[in-house]
Amino acid sequence: MVLGNLNNLIALRTKDGPTQEFVVETFGRTAIHTVRVGLNHGADAHLGDFSSSYSTQITETQEEAVPADILGKLPNLHYFASVSGGRRIKGRFQIIDPDHGRGSARPS
Q1: How far is CA 95 from CA 25, 78, 92, 98, 102, in A?
Q2: Which helix (H) or strand (E) holds 37?
Q3: Is the torsion defined by CA of 76, 11, 86, 35 positive or negative?
Q4: Cα–Cα distance between 36 and 17 in angstroms, integer?
């Protein structure tokens, strides 16, 4: 019940099956479009006998927005997030080095 009331969800690498299922369910499904293009042409032995055709086929399938197996393979500090308003994010946390740019000398 508590997890269902969360507005924001940040998912790092998860190996646990039930947790992966919860995250996949939270992110929902999305439409995947596949485009197939075909071009055919032919010529006969007679001069001027030529034919050609062009075809385009678009198909749509519903797939998981974030597949469960991807959640177990995320690199270190990478995440998927679902924030309020239905926005989905794939991101990476930055490591902040407080000594970056100071050089090797330390103040005394």
Answers
A1: 30, 12, 10, 10, 16
A2: strand 29-43
A3: positive
A4: 35
User: What are the pLDDT digits (tens) for 34-87?
Assistant: 999 999 888 877 777 788 899 999 999 999 988 998 999 999 999 999 888 778
* Three-point CA angle 35, 69, 96, nearest 5°: 100
Beta bridge partners of 5: none
Whole-angstrom distance, CA of residue 93 vs CA of residue 11: 12
SS3 57: strand
Tell which residue, 26, 31, 27, has the closest CA to residue 62: 31
List, for residues 34-45, the tens digit of each pLDDT value.
Answer: 999 999 888 877
Considering only CA atoms, which of 81, 75, 84, 67 is closest in space to residue 24? Answer: 67
CB proximity list for 59: less than 8 A, separation 6 or greater:
33, 34, 36
